[in-house]
Amino acid sequence: EKQGFKHFMLKEIYEQPGVVRASLEAYFNTNSHPENSSNSPINIGLPTEVYADLEQIQIVACGTSWHAALVGKYLLEQLAQIPTQVQYASEFRYAPSPLTPNTLTIGVTQSGETADTLAALAMEQERRQGREPKYQARLLGITNRPESSLGHMVPHIINTLAGIEIGVAATKTFIAQLMAFYALALDLAYSRQTLPHESLEDILKGLRQIPKEIEATLESQEKLTEQLAHEFAETTDFIFLGRGINFPIALEGALKLKEISYIHAEGYPAGEMKHGPIALLDAKVPVVAIAMPGSVYEKVISNAQEAKARDSRLIGVTPVKDGEAGEIFNDLIPVSFVDELLSPILTVIPLQLLAYHIAARRGLDVDQPRNLAKSVTVE
Ligand code: F6R
Predict the structure, then answer these.
(1) Measured between alpha carbons, how far is 27 from 36 in angstroms, rounded to an integer?
(2) 299 catalytic per annotation
(3) N or C: which end of the chain has fewer CB within 10 A?
(4) Beta bridge partners of 106
(5) Cβ(376) to ligand 1 under 6 A?
(6) Closest protein CA for atom 3 of ligand 1
(7) In the predicted model, is pLDDT for residue 254 greater than 80?
(8) What is the ipTM score, two decimals?
(9) How many angstroms separate the Cα of 287 from the Cα of each of 169, 235, 241, 290?
(10) Side by side, which strands form the sheet with 138-143?
């Protein structure tokens, strides 16, 4: 039941701190896993053969799960130093990459029933059958429904801990998928020794703070995003910009808005804007820029400045209130100051809220948007 929330989507957005807590408890609380013999501070229950001689990872997914996979790629490459490709399942199944040895193939699907994702995994299994050992398929599923078709198809699962999601637009299942990727990337980094012990500890410490930070974020942003929604209810186009680990969050912000409010929105890596999309910008097209302090902060600010010079109204998702950032943004949606590496878990929240409030303001059926279904079981 909706427990006082107007829609399931809003209730599920508010359940996200709990989802992160449940994930921390399951993946990172070694005390609760006395059977864990690897000494890794992470326990996702994967047998060692999944990691043995690993050279490459390929991930197949659709929609929001594909966005989670892009964050996963960033983590797997930057923390565990494993070359990682992310493919749309619908593309991969008809034009797979050439076979690479010692490759882990991950299917990410919250429902565990998405036809293209299942077919891509089945194709991978089949084309590697009978090959020499290093070319044999190693399949891993990341799903919120271990009892699903995916669960029956792959030998290993990381179970995401979102609980049942009713709103068609994925919110808490996305956060749960991100948590699974943090756990996987850190576990691999631990076993491959690609990360100094102190850095690993720092990241774990940061992750443990995230539920409180999400709670603070929700509290401070609810009214703010509602106000913005009021102003943007009639807007017809939006651009979302992010770079690095927050580029997939820009894509996700745009997808949420499209899905439930039927407003045209595009997400771009901020540096790519000048290569075409900048021609769209004028006073009628607001730009939401995700600007988290870290490796690409100045770059995002300077890309946002380019948008502002075209008269776009600039909305900043940033913890920086004063200085240059404070001045360039017309509207600020403040998020807590967290390590860039962990920031996607926080920056996605205001984008979910913004999409929600715009759709609600427009009087739309937020939980059951037109033309969409919770699981897409046809090609
Ligand atoms: C987005 C959304 C869809 C799904 C996509 C994949 O809000 O709901 O884009 O993410 O259909 O679904 P799963 O994860 O079930 O494979």
Answers:
(1) 11
(2) no
(3) N
(4) 59, 140
(5) yes
(6) 63
(7) yes
(8) 0.99
(9) 22, 12, 7, 10
(10) 84-88, 56-61, 103-108, 138-143, 156-159
